[in-house]
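User: Please predict the structure of the protein below. I'd like the answer in structure-token form so I can feed it into my own downstream comparison script.

Assistant: Understood. Taking the following sequence of 482 residues as input:
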Amino acid sequence: MKSQTKIIGRILEIQKLNKILESSEAEFLSVYGRRRVGKTFLIREFFNNQLVFDFTGTKDAHLQAQLNNFFEEYLKKTKGNLKTQTPKTWQEAFLYLADYLYSLKSDGSKMVVFIDEMPWLDTPKSGFISALEYFWNQHLSKMNHIILVACGSASSWIRKNLINARGGLYNRVTQRMRLAPFDLLETEKYLQSKGIQLPRYQIVELFMALGGIPFYLKYVEAGKSSTQLIDELCFWKDAPLQEEYKQLYYSLFKNAENHEKIVEILASKPQGLTRQDIQQQSKIANGTLSRTLEELVECDFVGIFQPFDKKKKDSIYKLIDNFSLFYAKFIKNQTFLNQGLWMALSKESSYGAWSGYAFENICFQHLPKILKALGINGISVNACSWKTRDGNGLGGTQIDLLIDRADKAISICEAKFSSNNYLVTKEYANHLRMRKSIFQHTTQTKKAIFNTLITPFPAIRNEHYLDQFQAEVNLEAFFDAG
């Protein structure tokens, strides 16, 4: 089994890649996930000694330019000893590559062909998909020592053309890997690998703004606070992430205006909207809307949550990409960016609202660790939200994170982001008591209901806390390595 010292986290992914290396058959691995999440690094680092061909597509390049780039990489590998004419079609290019692979002496150990940003190669009328079909079916599938890795950030393309293909590539992908952003523990380990020691609270502050995106985290420097780092990365003149948002969606999607419109709508409603609400506000046609939402979900920008005791059609769409939410709230409408701006913004009332929603996002992103901290990780659960309007005389209310458990219990979670030990006031305790009553009366649930507080530091155990909360989860649970 391969040991990877430069790869941070990715434990399950490394286990899968090791199994692929040990396979006795040809393997076709598709790797997809959000832009900047580290797909290329993972594959190149893990398969460093097995790579026999490594080629990357170019965005918006025409067919002949892509083929020229392919041929340059081919010449490097073959040292000009095989084909000497630039291929005119993908069919011809893949035939070149097949001949090269046949020429390599094999001792039975795996050899890896890595095609990165594959969706960018599938330009109109290029014939790329049909050529790839023939390449795999006629050649690679018969080479038991070969692993073909197809990688791309356009997750919807990967799923449509490879994983769920209906033509010659139907059921040909043998392995798939959806790479998610780092969680908080992986983020901490990544920063530590760069010699950066930050308190965990400040790591959470960074995470709320940047998310667990390795490409963003690589700009973090030692010896600076989270406030300084966010300021330098996002608000200084020519800050490295200042233009990232504009490139993010247009590099991934065709007609990215629709994706950006939906993201901005959801950023203005962090508690989420139904599909019907999004359609009404965006005015995007139904078919286009369905495809756009699916692509945003596939790339981990948007999450789908089915409310408690509701049908699938009532599902809520929420913006879960931390950086997109942060950009929409604080960067997009700034006309003048300068040093120290984030320090000033973080003292305004809008910071409190944003940090609350961002911390709720982190709770959803780390749900398995919350379940473990509560001692219910072995129980089947459904994490959802719930709300009701004032239709029964009790008043309207909303629960942002509700854990519906198979052990005949419900955990109503209160996520409170605070830099100090949280204090439950009498007024807040009364609010929790009334909300619980409204929930029980409206849903008629017979399950036991437990109020659970999720907050960075242990809350103060006053009478109001003891009266309302039966469980608590603190920051250390989010960094748990188990």
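That's the full token string. The first strand starts at residue 27 and ends at 32.
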